[in-house]
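Researcher: Quick sanity check before group meeting.
Model: Go ahead. Protein one:
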Amino acid sequence: MTTSKFLRRHWHDFGLISTVVAAVYLIADWSQLVALQQLLLLNFIVVLLHQFEEYGWPGGFPAVANIVMLRSDRPDRYPLNQQSSMVANLLFAYVFYLLPVFFPKMIWLGLAPVLVGFPLQFFGHVIIVNKKLKSLYSPGVATAVFGHLPVAAFYIYQICTNHLATGWDWLFAFLYAIGFAALDFGALEVALLGDKNSRYPFDQDEMERMEIGKKFALAQR
């Protein structure tokens, strides 16, 4: 296996290293960080764990995306493939989620990923995907429920009770969240890097985890 292939296959596993580093920093410098920084760094940790839950363990999100949500006729490589998923998710975590940690006073910048976690991630995984699969769990649900939801609740509580957010912050946060997600996952991951003849298909075990394809087929009966 080449280095590039190894990275495409295991980028979400390496995210656990970033998770540990961020967690150690959060604990060690807790008293030096303002409350919003604490929550934003925790939110960064949550999204890394969320990506690991989707693609690493228990995994199964490639099938959720390509089979359940996008109904692909080549689900092992289109619209999502190993290359597109790696690039889009790394940008999502290390730009969209990590950048606000360094600028906690820019409320709209930090509020945007919070709003993606809840309600978007929460309802997407917990409600929409599970409804399609007729299940109680699908990859991404655990971190959405026990990570994104409480972080969003505490962050929004902090900015509201301390009167830190203006109407413009909410508007810019909403527009930035939708815009970044559209560019990252729509334009980059699907339109630009999506290819029915992609040389970077998901491995068979990635597609078979959680037996998503079988569950979806049964749910359609």
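Researcher: Fine. The other one?
Model: Protein two, sequence then structure:
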Amino acid sequence: MTRDRDIRVVVVDDSAFNRQTITSMLSGVGGVAVVGRAGDGNEGLRLALEREPDVITLDLEMPRMDGFTFLRILMRRRPTPVIVISSHARQENVFKALELGALDFIAKPTVTLSPELRAIEAELVDKVLRIGRLQRVSLTERVRPPEPAEPAADRAAPAAAEPDAPLRVACIGASTGGPPALKQVLGALPAGLPIAVLVSQHMPAGFTAAFAERLDAACALDVREARSGDRVRAGRVLVAPGGASLAVERNPDGGVRVRVEAVDDTERAWGRAPRYLPSIDRMMQTAAAVVGGDVLGIVLTGMGDDGADGVRAIRRAGGATVAEAQETAVIFGMPEEAIRTGAVDEVLPLSRIADRIVRHARARR
């Protein structure tokens, strides 16, 4: 998507130091204009409605109106892409904000005021430029609670896996806009579903354990952050740790397990360093090599092209592939790149992806 004007940004933070620092990071970037700065949610909401920014950067802990109240009102009155800037110590706040409609977050290096805030400059500029230029759908679609993948009567007695049946695996990759999308998809899956699920969500180190716990609370399946050696089995969801990649391998007993790879480990095993972390391509390619035609690969919302090589590998191995439809993808970049490979079998809106996983799990073997 091309633009005929600058990307307009409003900075909302109760710290004058942070407001000035973030403004200075963005003001020198061609194609970006900071059109307002606010010290609390009330002022931020007024600027958002008056100046109609393309992107808002948001601190969550503010006087008068905090960031959560700001998000609730903003998403009702003028849904706008919001990048939360928060510290590692505020993980639960970050995920609550994403569920309220924030599009993405950036982890601050410290909780207190510090010149180290400058460390986020490259990431902040990149995300503002990408988010401001890409096509988006209504952000309020991601705030809805998950819908059951099938009628309640059917969910009461889910089909169990057949004895000695091949392992079915769903590999789901997501980036920007992914946490609420994953909550919708996983939250709609019935208990006892005979499928293993692997998730790679682009996220920095230190956040995925809390993310997995939040998904587990909303999901009938067992969700946990993956550790090397964890068995891939039906009814379990393994979330790749932030800053690393998830690889699938055979157990000595013939079963399937995962290996958590640091960047250097992935580079040695794969022949190149991953561009994105956790790497969706790495997860899908190794799953295809080990599980073959019983893999379902799914690419959800996100920026970039991670997952494109992965769906190719799954298709070559005889598995099935799905990309999220443009009508629901908050950022259509990753699904679009996957579709362009010609290796995507189905393009589905977010609301139909849980049903597709159920069908894959219960298909006749």
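Researcher: One line on it for the slide.
Model: Residues 150-164 have pLDDT under 50 and may be disordered.
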